[in-house]
Amino acid sequence: MAALNAARGTVKRSGDRRSFGLSADAVVHQGGLAVLNGGFAEPMSVATGLVAVGMFLASADNTDGADGDVQVEVEAGIFRFNNSAGADEITAEDIGSTCYGVDDQTVALTDGTSTRSAAGTIFDVDAQGVWVDLR
Fold it and tell me: Fewer CB atoms near the end CB (10 Å): N or C, the chain?
């Protein structure tokens, strides 16, 4: 294709919201940590190979459907999730590091001996939890 020789109306997306097909048998809850597994959305869980994509904007149930029968909207951004405890507790000194998903509302400092997927980058830590950058 040749280079432009006139103005072009390029289509734009902000990138902060996307829709995905929900995995078969998945139930997701508004505010939960959303991941892709094989290209379909589901809640974060202890598993490897999941790709964190944001936070679910609404609850949805695909327990009686096949992969993709239900569509869910996910928002990228910086969100606060629960902090793990003990050796997996995240502190301010961990800001900028990767955190790992325990479930759809909890993140941990470690990958649980290679059993957890990355959830995002630790943006901040406060008394209520861990701010995770999911952009």
Answer: N
Q: What are residue 51's DSSP bridge partners?
A: 36
> 3-class SS at 94?
helix
Q: Is the pTM of this model over 0.85?
A: yes
Location of structure tokens 């996307």: 18
The tens place of each residue's pLDDT in the chain, 135 residues long, gives 899 999 999 998 888 999 999 999 999 999 999 999 999 999 999 999 999 999 999 999 999 999 999 999 999 999 999 999 999 999 999 999 999 999 999 999 999 999 999 999 999 999 999 999 999
